[in-house]
Each structure stands twice: as C-alpha cells, then as structure tokens.
Amino acid sequence: MSLIPGRVREAAERLTAFPAYLYDLAALDEHAAAVRQAMGETELYYAVKANPDPELLRVLRPHVDGFEVSSGGEFAHVRGLFPDARLALGGPGKTDEELRLAAGAHRVHVESPAELRRLLELGRPAEVLLRLNLDLEVAGAALAMSGPFGMDADAVAECRPLFAGQVRFRGVHAHLASGLEAPQLLGLAAELAGQHPEEVNLGGGMAVDYAAPDSRFDWAAYGAGLAALRRPGQTLRVEPGRALTAYCGYYVTRVLDVKRTRGELYAILQGGTHHLRTPVTKGHDQPFTVLPGRDRPDGPEEPVTLVGQLCTPKDVFARRVPASVRTGDVVVFAMAGAYAWNISHHDFLMHPWPAFHHLFG
Hints:
27% of the residues lie in helices and 25% in strands. By secondary structure, the chain is of the alpha/beta class. Helix 5 (96-100) links the parallel strand 4 and strand 5 (107-110). The two termini are 24 Å apart. The mean pLDDT is 93.
C-alpha cells in the first residue's frame, strides 16, 4: 500500500471518468530543484524517454541543463517546445535522417565505428561523445546496458583516428546500468572520470524502489562524490529519467468487480497494463492506495490481486497484497510518472485512453 499527498487524493476523489493519470507538477518542481542543487557543477540532462509529457518537460526546463533524446521524434518534440534547449541525441540505431539532426544537437552519442563513418559522410558539423560498453562489474543492477549498446575498447580505438573536419570528439558516454544506489554509481564514475579527462556523460540509472515508495536516491551524496571526482576543466554530466519523474505520477482507476476464484481474491480494475505497463515489465507490485466508496463500511484486509481488463493473465498491477477492496472503490497507483503510459501498448483491445490531469499546486 502507498500513502498519497492530500492534493492528489482530493483530485482523485473529484474524478468522474476513469482511468486517469494525475501528474503532481508542484511535487516535481520541488524534487527537480533539489536534484539540481545537489548536482552543483555537474551538468544535469533529463532523459526524455522516461516521460515526454509536455507539461512535465516545462516544469523540468528551468532545472536542467538540457535533454537527452533517443530518436528523431523525441528531438522534434523537445525542439518544438524549447527551440533553444541543449539536446543530446542518443539511441543504438540511428537513421541517416537522425544523424543529420546532430548538426542541431549539443552532443550526439555515437554507438559504433560504422555510425561514426556515416556521420562523417554526411558532411555536417557534430560534437561527438563515443558511447562505451565497458567490462565493469555492476552487481545489484536492475538492468545492465551491455549487449548491443556502445563500443568495446577495440571499437573505440578504431573511432579515434576517424575524426576530421567539423565532426569533433568531445568525450565519452556510458550508461552502464539501471537501479544503482549512489555508492555504486560513484564507483563506476570514478573509473570513467579517471580514464577520460575531457567530457564524461555518466548516464542515468539512479535507483527507484517501487517496494519503498517513500525512499529516494541519495542525490546529495552523489553530487558531492562527483564534485570530488571532477578534474580541473573536466565536464561531468548525468542523465536521470525515472528518478526525476517517477514520483510525480499517479494512475487512478476504479474497481469493476471483486471475486474469488479457487480461493484467490481478485479485484478487476478499469484500464490495465496497456495504460501502466511498469509492474509487468519490472515484475513488481505497483504501490497503491484504495479510496473506499462512499458509505461503505471498512472491511478487513486480506491478500488480493489487482488486475485489469485485458484478455491476458499478465495484466496484473499487484499480486496478493493485503487490502480492503470493494466494487466501486477508487484505486490510486503511485510512482507512475516514468516508463508508464509512454511505454505501454495503448491500443491492445482498443479500450479508451485515460484522461490526463496536471496538478500545479
């Protein structure tokens, strides 16, 4: 179960149409300001893939040095909102059309020698970071970004003599893993910052714990650690996504049915993981709060599995979580501000899309 702020609860209780997303922009503004302060001279970019909602981006804009985009679509989206924003263009498989956008980007993250050669052939200016695929231990990571991402040492060595003309080498990029705490990220950062004196983009990967919705990544420790690592004249940059916006989002729906099957209690909710895919992809119970329907007596809590309307047994928000749930109750899922709506399979079964509401304070 999860507690929710008063303004979110009040907004959820006013809803008449379900499902809906609520974005607490006042909370996002406060959180982003605190992260910006903690980072000090370390540059802060937001990874747009986490949530490209325009209102969220507008709140983040004063607190970040730029945005990391991973496609031509994201590039156009952010550029349309903020014509002068600094953009870092990444992504493991860039088309020629996307590589042409490098001329309008602050940085482009090159993934292979072949991609660098294609960029050179286009004859346009570009400021390049080489993305690294390092053989480093990332114990405890929720997701290791190895495999096809970035380059090993041999590929980097192949790239270095290729730079010519308007395509300039600026440094390296290395998003190594997701779900790491500050000490682990600092250990990885120390290896990179020590080996590459120019410019180092350390990526994101800051831990977000869905089982402990009140916990937060230790931004103060991370910022102080990076400040101690930075060499004179060196640029360090981070690209958080989930850890910036996850906490400001809520998915609100209602209970359509409650039933017991073979001894198991199920609550069937309007909507489903085609709107909020996060618990399925990460294999966790999405934290939630039940807002009981009017005039219904409080009932005892017992283990209940919360599912959606989809025709698949994988459409599960949370399994066997103690709760008191009745038909007509409103359920508010917390931590739905990142990799939630934008990563979900919206049109499966062609259910209506949710509404979106932005809370400004």
